[in-house]
Amino acid sequence: MKDPRDPLSSTLKLWQHEPAPAPDFRNQVWNRIHASVDRSSASIFHFPGALPLAASLAVLFSIAAGSGTAFALNQSLTTDRMAAAYVRTIDPVQMTALESHIHP
Question: Within a domain: residue 20?
Fold first, then answer.
């Protein structure tokens, strides 16, 4: 419990701190802002051709990946069709289904 005779609460309510302003605060802030802008722009635009080059490489990679995938899918479908046609020519059950004439 609080002791009613404790003066800490009233002392804290009356206490006020008045910090002294820094003599060169504004200039220091602007110097730090300018330094951070210079560093960030230098790191981003150090290689001005990097962004267009990266975008071009991404487009080329996408085209190559899409073409490769389409070729692989087409090759797979062609192989499946050729295998099915070959099986129809050697399987006696499917050969009889393919014959168009009737045996006497």
Answer: no
Q: Quick: pLDDT tens for 12-59.
A: 888 888 888 888 999 999 998 888 776 655 555 567 777 888 889 999
Q: pLDDT digits over 47-61, tens only?
A: 777 788 888 999 999
Number of structural domains (the chain) is 1
Residue 41: inside a domain: no
pTM greater than 0.85 (yes/no) = no
What is the Cβ-side half-sphere exposure of residue 75, based on CA atoms within 13 angstroms? 6
63: containing domain: 50-96
Instruction: Tell me, yes or no, whether 73 lies in a domain.
Output: yes
